[in-house]
Fold this sequence. Notes:
- The structure holds two protein chains of two kinds.
- By secondary structure, chain A is of the alpha/beta class.
- Chain A has three domains: 7-27 and 314-413, Rossmann fold (3-Layer(aba) Sandwich), CATH 3.40.50; 40-175, Rossmann fold; 188-296, Rossmann fold, CATH 3.40.50.
- Chain A has helices at 40-48, 62-66, 92-97, 100-114, 125-130, 134-145, 161-172, 200-211, 225-229, 246-256, 268-282, 285-313, 325-337, 352-361, 374-383, 396-401, 419-434, and strands at 13-15, 54-59, 86-87, 118-123, 148-152, 188-192, 214-219, 236-240, 260-263, 317-322, 341-347, 367-370, 388-391, 405-408.
- In chain A, the strands form three sheets. In chain A, strands 1-12-11-10-13-14 form a six-stranded mixed β-sheet. Chain A has a four-stranded parallel β-sheet with strand order 3-2-4-5, with helices on both faces. In chain A, strands 7-6-8-9 form a four-stranded parallel β-sheet, with helices on both faces.
- The model of chain A has no long low-confidence stretch (mean pLDDT 94).
- Chain B is α/β, with parallel strands linked by helices.
- The longest helix of chain B has 23 residues, at 422-444.
- In chain B, the strands form three sheets. In chain B, strands 12-11-10-13-14 form a five-stranded parallel β-sheet, with helices on both faces. In chain B, strands 3-2-4-5 form a four-stranded parallel β-sheet, with helices on both faces. In chain B, strands 7-6-8-9 form a four-stranded parallel β-sheet, sandwiched between helices.
- Helix content of chain B is 46%, strand content 13%.
- Chains A and B meet through helix 1, helix 2, strand 3, helix 3 and helix 4 of A and strand 1, helix 2, strand 3, helix 3 and helix 4 of B.
- Strand 3 of chain A pairs antiparallel with strand 1 (7-8) of chain B.
- The structure holds iron/sulfur cluster (2 copies).
- One iron/sulfur cluster sits between chains A (39, 41, 60, 64, 124-125, 156-157) and B (36, 38-39, 42, 98).
- Chain B: Pfam families: Oxidored_nitro.
Amino acid sequence: MNGVVLKERTGQVYEKGAGPFKLQCNLDSLPGAVSQRACVFCGSRVVLYPITDALHLIHGPIGCAVYTWDIRGALSSDRELHRFSFSTDLREKDVIFGGEKKLEAALLELIERYNPEAAFVYSTCIVGIIGDDIGAVCKRVSKKTGIKCIPVQSEGFKGNKRAGYEAACRALINLIGDGDIEGISPFSVNILGDFNLAGEIWIIKDYYRRMGIEVVSTITGDGRVKDISRAHGAKLNVVQCSGATLALAKMMKEKYGIPYIRVSYFGVDDMADALYRVADFFKDRQIMENTKALINDELNKLYPALKEFRRELAGKRAAIYVGGAFKAFSLIKAFRLLGMKVVLVGSQTGTKEDYEELEAITDPGTIIVDDSNPLELSEFLKEKKVDIFVGGVKERPIAYKLGIGFCDHNHERKEALEGFIGMYNFAKEVYSTVMSPVWRFVPRKEG
Amino acid sequence: MKQYVSTTNACKLCRPIGACLAFRGVEGAVPFLHGSQGCATYMRRYIISHFGEPIDIASSALGEKHAVFGGGPNLKQGIINVIKKYEPSLIGVATTCLTETIGDDVSMMLDEFKREFLADADSPILINTSTPSYAGTHMEGFRGATRSIVEKLAQHRLTSAEEKRVNLLPGFLSPQDIRYLKELSRDFELPLTILPDLSETLDAPILLEYPKIPAGGTPIDAIRDMGSACASIEFGRTVSDELSAALYLRERFGVQDFRIGTPIGIRESDRFFSLLEKISGKKTPSFHREERDRLIDAMVDGHKYVFGKKVVVYGEEDLVVGITSFLAEIGARPVLCATGGKSGRFKSAIKSVVDGILRDLPEIREDVDFWEIEELTRQLEPDLIMGHSKGYKISRALGIPLIRIGFPIHDRIGGQRILHIGYRGAQMLFDRVANAIIAKKQRDSDIGYGYF
Ligand code: SF4
Ligand code: SF4
C-alpha cells in the first residue's frame, strides 16, 4: 500500500496491527497531494449556512460564493435566505483600491432588499491580502440599519476547515444573549451542530418533544436569529457530531455557565445513548420514562426491517472517508449492526484523540488515514476489496470508477440519516447500492 | 433596471476553473492551482457534480505564511509531488486570486524550477496561465489556458506538407459535442487536432485498473504540430483577439484562421460544414446531408408549436449566441439573452446571428446575475427558459419549463452527453424545445389531450 502514498505522508496512514499505533494529523495539506480538504471559509460557511433568516454575504471574487451556492441539503421551515449566493464579486479596481466601499454598498443594498434578521459577512483569501476591515464596515452598517452585521474572519488560507468552524462559532456568540429568556422550561436544551440536512433536525426535535424537553434553539440547522439570541436561556447544550460547534458550546459554558454534552444521532446505539444522556441530565422521572418508551417504540419498528437488510449485507466490506472523524465512529457501529466489516476509515480533519478512538474500535487490518487523496483512496479500496464506500461528492466518482457501491454521507444528502428512521434510511441506501445488479457488468467483477 | 452593486446568484464561474477544464483536455495532463487549498477542492467538487467523473486538481495549498512570503517553495514542492505520483506529461499551472494579488511570478518560478529539478528530457512540460478571477470569468480562463498551451507547444515543423491537418479550437463544449467533431473528422477524412479534447478525459468508462490520469485528451505531439496545420477553425463569436489561439497561430506561423460561430442551429452549422467542404475538398457525406434534411422536415412538422414562443436564454456567451441563432431559425422568439461574461462582444454577436430573421431584438444583457435574470424573466413572461441547472430556481418559481444545456448541469444526469452542435444537435434541441412546450400545454390544460 505504501507505493501510492507520498513519502511525506506515510506517517498519516496506519494499518491496524502493523506496529504500535501512531498517526500524524493536524498537519497542513501537502502541496500537490490533491487533498480532499477545503478551506477556512468552507468551514465557516458550512456551520452558519443553515441560519435561514440571516443574510450571508461573501466578500471576495466570485468563485468562493458561486461554488457554495445552494449546495447543502439544509432545509428550512420558513425563510430561505441561506439558499442564495451573495457576493461582492470583487473586480480589478476593488482589489487595487480596496473593497470596503463596495462591501458597504452591497450590504446596504441586500439588507434593504431582503430585510434579514442579521447579516454575516465572510472574508475570503483575497480580503485577507488587501486588508479590508470588514469589522468596521459591519459596525457602520449595523448602526445605519439596525440589523446586526457580524464579520466572519474566514480567510481561506488561514488553516483548514476546522479553523473555519471556530471562526463561525466566534461569530455566533455575538448573536447569543440578546433575547428574552423568560418562561423557558427548566427542561430545555439547545441543539448544536446539526444542520437539518434532509430535515434531520425535525426528527430530533420530535424526539425531544416526546421526551418532554423544550428545544430553545437549533444551532444551526433550521436556525432562526431570534431563537439563537435566546440560546443562553437553555439548561443544556447538546452538541452533535464532530467539532463543528464544540467551540461555541465551550464559549457558552464560560460565558453563561451552560453545561454541554457531545452526542451523535447516527445509528441505533448512539441515538439511544444521546437521548438517555439528555434524560439523565435532567434527573426527572417522567422524562426518563418518556425516553424509555420512545426508544422502545422506535426500536420495535426498526429492528424487523433491519433484520431483512442484514440478511443480505452481512459480511460485506465497507470503507469510510468523511470530513470529521466523529461521524466515523457512528458509521462503524452502524455497519456492525448490519453485520458488515469496516476495512478503511479516514477523515479530512481528525484530531489525535479522534484517531486513537478509531484505532480502539476498529478491527485489525483496518486502514486508518488522515487527509487522504484520490490516488491513495482508490488504492486502498482496491486492496481491501470494498463493497461500499461512504463519503461525499468528491469521493463518489472514485468509488464508481472502481465499480464499488457508494453512500452519500455529506452536507448535500437528500436522505435523512439521523435518528432511528435515519438508520433505516441508511440501511436502505447501503442495501440499494451494494445489491444493485449493475456491478455484474463492471470490469472488475466480470468473469 | 436598477443599478446593483452586489451579485446575487452569479451567472458565471471563476477564471481558474476554466483553465483547469482546458488543461484536463490535454493527454496526460494534470491541472494545478497555485493558491490555497480551498479553491481547488471547490472546483473539483463543482466539476464532479456535472460530469460525474473524478478530476484531480493539485494545489500548492498555500497557508498564511506563504501568503506573506510568497508561494514559490510550495509551488515547487507541489509540482515535485505531482510528478512523483501522477507521472504526468504536462502540468498546467493556473493562478488564483490569492497568488495574483500577492504577485507571485509563476513563469519565473517555473523557469527556476526547471533549472533546479528538471534536467532530463522526458520530464513533464510545465505550462502556466494567469487567471485572476477579478478580471474575467471561467470562459476567459478556458480560452486563456488553451492559448497558453498553443503558445508554449505549437511549432512549425513542416512534417508532410501534403497532409491536411486542421486545428479545431472548439471552446467549452460537452464531451458529446467533441465526439461528434471527431466523427466529422472521420467522415470528411480530414485529420483534426481538437484542443482541448474533453471527450474521454471527462467522460471515461469504468476500467479494470483505476487510471491515475484518465486516457484521452489532445496528444501533445499533435499540439506541437499545430503550427504546421493547413488551417485553424475556432468556434465562438465572442473570443477576443488576445485569447484567440487561432489568431496566434496565424500571426506566428501563418496558419490560415477561420473564426466562426459555435455551430448551433442550421445556419451556424451550414457555415461550419461548408468550411469543412472547402478545407477538405470533399462534399458533405450523405449521412450528414440526410441529418440536415430530416432536421428541416422535423422543423416543418413542429413549427406551429414553437412559433412565437418566448424564450429566455442564459449562460456562456458563445453558447447563448448559438442557441439564440437556433431559436430565431425555428420561429421562436428569444426575449432575453443573458450572460455573466463581459467580453464586450456579446451584443454584436447576438445581433449578427439573428439578423434578417428576427424583427425585434431580444433584451441583451452581459455581466448579469440571476437576480437580474429573474427580474427580467418576470417582466418578459417567457414560455421557456434555456440554460444550465442554475436557472432551476426561476423555472420553479415561475412555473416555466427549463431546458438544460451547457454547464453546469447538476440536477439531472447526462450533462456530458448533451449534443449541442451540428444538424444532429439542432435536431435534439428542436425536439426538446417542441416537446417541452407540448408537455406544458398538456399539463396546463383542464382535460389533458392525447393527440397533438
Ligand atoms: S479566490 Fe479566486 S480562484 Fe479561488 S475560488 Fe475565489 S474566485 Fe475562484
Ligand atoms: S479563495 Fe480562499 S476562501 Fe475562497 S475558496 Fe479559495 S481558499 Fe477558500
